[in-house]
Amino acid sequence: MQQEHIQKEFIWHFGEMGSRWGINRTVGQIYALLFLSHKPLCADDMCDALGFSRSNVSMGLKELQSWNLVRRREIERDRREHFEAPEDLWKIVRTLIAERKKREIDPTLSKLRELSLEADGNDTHANRRISELRDLIESLTQFYDKMERIETERLVELIKAGSKFSKLISATDKIIPLSRTRRNRKEN
Fold first, then answer.
1. How much of the chain exceeds pLDDT 70, in percent?
2. What span, in angstroms and rounded, lies between the C-alpha atoms of 8 and 14?
3. Any idea what DSSP says for residue 51?
4. 3-state secondary structure of 63
5. 47 close to 80: Cβ distance less than 8 angstroms
6. Which of 88, 82, 84, 90 is nearest to 70 (CA)?
7. The dihedral formed by the CA atoms of 96, 102, 107 and 110, expressed in degrees to the nearest 10
8. What is the pLDDT of residue 66?
9. What pLDDT, on the 0 to 100 scale, is given for residue 171?
10. Is residue 69 classed as helix, strand or coil in its secondary structure?
11. What does 83-120 look like in DSSP terms, one character per residue?
12. What confidence tens digit (pLDDT) does each residue in 41-99 have?
C-alpha cells in the first residue's frame, strides 16, 4: 500500500514538474508511469492506471515519441503497441538536453545570427548586446558539442570531479578572507 502511494505521488509530482518545464501535465504523468513501470505498457494499461482518456494517452505517447523519450516494444502474442522508457538515466538526461537544444537553443542561435547579419556593422548598443548573446550561446553550444561526444562513464567522472573542484574553491574562499582578517588585526 505504501509503495502504491509513493508511485502515485511521484506520477502526480512528475506531471506538475513537467508542466513547469513546458511539457503538458498529462504527458509528464504518462512518462512517469512508464519510467516507474518494470514492464512495457500498452495504452489501455496507461488509461486504467492514470484515469486518462484513450485520446489523451495517444497524444501524450506521440509527443513522448517525438522527444525520443519512449520507444515501442513488441510483446509476444499481443498485437497492441507497448511502450517503455529507457532504463539508463543518463540516456534520458542526454536525450532531454539534445531535444531542448534542437527545439530551443538552435532556433534562437539561428535568429541571433540572422539579426547580426542584418545589423550590417552598425555599432549600436542593441546590436552589441545581440552579438554578445550570440557569442555566448555559440560558446555554450560548442561546449555542449564536445560534452555530447564524451562517453557516459567519462562524463559522470567529469561531473563528479567538477563537484569536488567546486567544493575546493568554496573552501578556499572561506579560508582566504580569514587570513586577511588576521593580517588586518596584526597591522592595527
1. 91
2. 10
3. T
4. helix
5. no
6. 84
7. 130
8. 94
9. 74
10. coil
11. EE--S-HHHHHHHHHHHHIIIIIHHHHHHHHHHHHHHT
12. 999 999 999 999 999 999 999 999 999 999 999 999 999 999 999 999 999 999 999 99
Half-sphere exposure of 89 (CA within 13 A, CB side): 3
**Mean pLDDT for the chain overall:** 89
* 3 state SS of 71: strand
Q: What is the pLDDT of residue 15?
A: 86
Cβ contacts of 112 within 8 Å, gap of 6 or more: 130, 133, 134, 137
Identify the pLDDT of residue 80. Answer: 94
- From residue 162, how far is each of 42, 98, 141, 158, 175 by CA, in Å? 41, 21, 19, 6, 20
Q: Of the candidates 155, 26, 32, which has an alpha carbon nearest to the alpha carbon of residue 97?
A: 155
